[in-house]
Amino acid sequence: MRVFISSFIVLVAVFLALRSVVQKVHELPELDLQKWWGSGSKLENQDESIRPFKIDLNDSMISDLKERIKTRRRLTQPLEGIQSEYGMNTIYLEKVLTYWADKYDFKKRFEQLNRFPHYKTKIQGLDLHYIHVKPKASKGIEVLPLLMLHGWPSSSKEFDKVIPILTTPKEGYNFVFEVIAADLPGYGFSEGTNKPGLNPLQIGIMMRNLMLRLGHKKFYIQAGDWGSQCATHMTTLFPDNILGYHNNMPLSSRLISHFKLVIGSLFPTLIDSDRPERVYPLRNHFKYLMRESGYFHIQSTKPDTIGVALSDSPSGLAAYIMEKMAICSNRDQLDTPHGGLANLDIDDVLDTVTITWINECIVTSMRLYAEGFYYPEISIVQNIPTDVPTAAVKFLYEVTYQPDWILKDKFRNLVRSTSYDFGGHFAALHTPEVLADDVFASVKEFIKFHRTAKNKSTK
């Protein structure tokens, strides 16, 4: 017992000593808020028009894709007794590919997406695509602008089930949302850049410029995955523009947070009384990350190489994307042929694969992994906390998990945190009603936060 107490005192002393070092907050770096990402040099007279856009899936494009699927080479069968432990189960994949070529209704699926108003506009030289849905005006109901940002390998399509819920008045709330669901540059129908350096921080700048273009100087954000990285940087860089931030992949990347994660492993139930088993013991967490992060390392280092294969074969593209969508929807189902994919509607999954194929954007989307970590501006901004009111929603099979005492290192005004014992990484596709309900409840807390802050300032 004496040894335990002595060790604890030493750890506390080390923690306090290191905290003074790792909690050092830097000033915001100087950034070009109009940096040019288009081809060639920056144009003096930039096109700032907003143009209606319709997804066009022509017959020749569909025929070519179907032919490529049907003339694929023979797939290697899984080993005896192996389901999805080695990756995509090719017996299951054969069934999905046959469905994609013979029964998936391309025209119907994309007409369904076209039910929303789509637009494109050039931001800093790149043509950005977004869905923009305004609710029907109702007396006494306030309309609030909400920017929604996706991650890899998605697009604004990920939000097509949740948009109707968010743009419909909800009982018990005196507000509804005007949704702007944007494709990140290089994803979906948005143009990619030919210049290095377009990292999540720079994308955050572009998204803020998009909202200003649309006339919204103040707005809310909902985001996950890479979209949440972009949005987190936005809350740090532009706190006066963002009224509240709803995050379904909450993560603090501050140095103090990494240290606290390790310290928390000594007393997990004291540190996190909510869901300590989701991250502790750390050996299980790291084992999972090591098992499933191969794609992450490839895309962070050599995205263009793997991109050649994925751009040439729709079957390979489908296997690559679906395997990650599966594991991120239920990592406990590796012992099944679908590996977790059955938790999502297969048409939604194939929408994502099809959008990636027809826009030839697998390489430009994967490059974000290579751009996302290696710039000093990112490290600086990551280590600066934000005061923007934030809400965290934590679904069971999210890729990563942090307890609130760590999240508050970055998000000092964490006004709401909810954990669910179901759901996964692609929340808007997997559990759209739950996600939408959480957004409504969180924005109610954001409004309350600002009202309280205003009352305090007037006293």
Can you walk through the features of this model?
With 459 residues, the protein is of the alpha/beta class. The protein has one domain (59-458): 3-Layer(aba) Sandwich (Rossmann fold). The protein is 46% helix and 12% strand. Helix 17 (404-410) links the parallel strand 8 (390-394) and strand 9. Helix 1 packs antiparallel against helix 8, helix 12 (303-312) crosses helix 13 (314-327) and helix 13 (314-327) crosses helix 14. The radius of gyration is 23 Å and the shape is globular. The protein starts with a helix and ends with a helix. Mean pLDDT is 92; it is low at 1-14. Keywords: Aromatic hydrocarbons catabolism, Endoplasmic reticulum, Hydrolase, Membrane, Signal. Its EC number is 3.3.2.9.
Overview in brief:
By secondary structure, the chain is an alpha/beta fold. Helices cover 46% and strands 12% of the residues. It has a single domain, classed as Rossmann fold, CATH 3.40.50.
Task: Outline the secondary-structure elements.
Blueprint: H1 2-22, E1 50-53, H2 59-70, H3 90-102, H4 106-113, E2 118-123, E3 126-133, E4 142-149, H5 163-166, E5 175-182, H6 200-213, E6 219-223, H7 225-237, E7 242-247, H8 255-264, H9 268-271, H10 282-292, H11 294-301, H12 303-312, H13 314-327, H14 346-358, H15 362-371, H16 376-382, E8 390-394, H17 404-410, E9 414-419, H18 427-430, H19 432-458
Parallel strand pairs: 4-5, 4-6, 6-7, 7-8, 8-9
Antiparallel strand pairs: 1-2, 2-3, 3-5
Helix pairs in contact: 1-8, 2-3, 6-7, 8-17, 11-15, 12-13, 12-15, 13-14
Name the features.
single chain, disordered N terminus, alpha/beta, 459 residues, Rossmann fold, 9 strands, 19 helices
